[in-house]
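We treat protein structure as text, and this decision shapes the records that our systems exchange. Because each token names a local backbone shape, the row as a whole describes the fold. An entry from our holdings is shown next, in its original layout:
>
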Amino acid sequence: HVQLQASGGCLVQPGGSLRLSCAASGSIFSNNVMAWYRQAPGNEREWVGTITSRGMTLYADSVKGRFTISRDNAKSTEYLRMNSLKPEDTAVYYCKLSQRGRDYWGKGTLVTVSS
């Protein structure tokens, strides 16, 4: 069984920065993929970016150049560094871990970008 716990969401002003964390626990295998998604009010959940166990990353066009995903395999934790935040980045952010054909989701953490 795998559990994910996302944290770090809060209210931040436009142009500000924030770092989210997602800690995984349980039966974590070395070969996995972690990702971030977000869901704004009234919208469907959308993919933000992905990082493989080897550190390869992919990003949605909407966040490319502003957001950076990293991970610490020893801690089974991934991070989402968000810079130059915009009001449209306001959403609940979710982390996902995929391994051996299964996806695991954590509860989201709310990021509000507002002055």
User: Anything to note?
Assistant: The first strand starts at residue 2 and ends at 7. The radius of gyration is 13 Å. DSSP finds no helices and eleven strands in the chain.
